Amino acid sequence: MAARGLCLLCFAAVLKVMSSEVCSNFFIPGAKGDQGPIGETGDEGRLGKTGPPGPTGASGEKGSKGEFGPPGKMGPTGEQGDKGDKGLAGGPGMKGKQGTTCDCGRYRKVLGQLDVNVSKLRNTVKFVKSVILGLRETEERYYLLVKEPKRFGEASLSCQLRGGSLAMPKTLNSNRLMADYISQAGLTRVHIGVQTQTQNGSQSLIFVDSSSLSGFPSWTPEVELSSWSANSTCVELHSTGTWACVECEAPLFFICEFPKSRRSGGRNPPELASS
Question: What separation in angstroms does the CA of 65 have from each of 58, 62, 68, 92?
Answer without folding.
Answer: 21, 9, 9, 55
